[in-house]
Amino acid sequence: MIQRLYDWTLNLAQHRHALWALGIVAFLESSVFPIPPDILMIPMILATPRRAWLIAAIALVASVLGGILGYMIGALAFDTLGQPILASLGKADAMAEFSTRFNDMGFWAVLGAGITPFPFKVITIMSGWTGMPLGVFVATSILARGLRFFIVAGLLWQFGAPIRDFIERRLALMFTLVVVLLFGGFILVKYL
């Protein structure tokens, strides 16, 4: 089923309403959809490199708006369903402690999920669920998704089709390494 959904998403890149499709996919990917918008962005930018920045901007705006929807899902579902269930199981205190720990590292969680292959929707929902400040969530989402989409757009704009294989196979690893190095650097600065 995932392969069919992937193929369907890839075919959208050739449609005359591909920009709208990209916006919808980027919006939904941040809250419920399993296929990342990069699948549409890559063939769209290769087909029309002059529109690379517009394509990245649409993905960014739609993704952040979808992230806000994910945040609201987390905030509303936890208040109405999650908390009473946890209280009845005697786990409300454990979840409060988890919520505090998540929010202590929330910037890094959102940044990491926003630029790596980790499903962004998980972090958007958890951010709302744990009560992360909405402003911090939105600002970090803009930074993370902007980095991800504009780096992909810039690489495709500059190098074209030859860079496609690198992006599809190795860019997620490179983004993950950058986050690990940034996080490690801040840890070193804090404790040295």
| H/E element sequence | HHHHHHHHH
* End-to-end gap: 50 Å
- The chain-level mean pLDDT equals 78
Q: Which percent bin holds the helix content?
A: over 70%
What integer value in Å does the Rg equal?
18 Å
Q: Which spans have pLDDT < 50 for at least 5 consecutive residues?
A: none
The main sheet comes to: none
The oligomerization state is: single chain
Number of helices: 9
Tally of extended strands?
A: 0
Shape: elongated
Strand content: under 5%
Structurally, the number of domains stands at 1
Structure classification? mainly alpha
Nutshell version of this structure?
The chain is mainly alpha-helical and 192 residues long. It has nine helices and no strands. It has one domain.
